[in-house]
Write a structure and sequence with these properties.
It is built from two helices and 24 strands. By secondary structure, it is mainly beta. The protein is globular and about 55 Å long.
Amino acid sequence: MDIRYAVHPEQMKTLDTQKMREQFLVENLFVRDRLNMVYSHIDRIIAGGVSPVNGTVELKGTKELGVDFFLQRREMGIINIGAAGVVSVDGKGYELGNKECLYIGMGPKEVSFASADRDNPAEFYFNSAPAHAAYAIVKLSLADAQRLDLGDPLKANVRTIYQFIHPKVLKSCQLVMGLTILAPGSNWNTMPCHTHDRRMEVYLYFDMPADTVVFHLMGEPQETRHLVVRSGQAVISPSWSIHSGVGTGSYTFIWGMAGENQTFTDMDDVPMSILK
């Protein structure tokens, strides 16, 4: 478990590129047969990934959580960005295809991951947040999600948002999660940008050609910085930070949020005129 501590906006101004990457960028999530996790003290969210090839990989509690099992006081959302696989929860298997989601509420003791075909492994990405109540396990496909079509082709930001873990779709304690697919020829996500001081956010970028990168923008609106992000990498975004990006080619991203408010539209828009 990689531990990341919270960063104050004033500290952000002092970070060079390498220090920014160490604080906010999550790399090497999808290593064969190994579950990798980052625990952020920003709303205590966990972002993790696993690509099971040679068998089953179990999700286990760690010393950092101080619990008997991982979901003792947590909930989690899982989205498969690879080939078909199976998530087993207390002995019951849930098959997940590409871009399918599984919400698991607080309480189950055993969770494990496996691929349907070792030659075409699944890649399971998950976010987990502290929970106060136990809600039902729900599997969702893109057809089950709430769909929002946003953007303008003249601004190169046409995109479709699929809300998987959202109050209008299912019950969760604080976790909100979904994915955004950009239309061909559109490069910008979440622009014009915003902040939402009531919750933080994590972006995972994927479905990117090998020579494509995303310039992920973050920081206070008048003190912006950027990270160069590649396929299968995630960015931890504090609640005070903008979170937007532009790609040199096609990409998709998963967003996950934790904090005080689950209302998707609860955001503070940032006028383009004040960005610096």
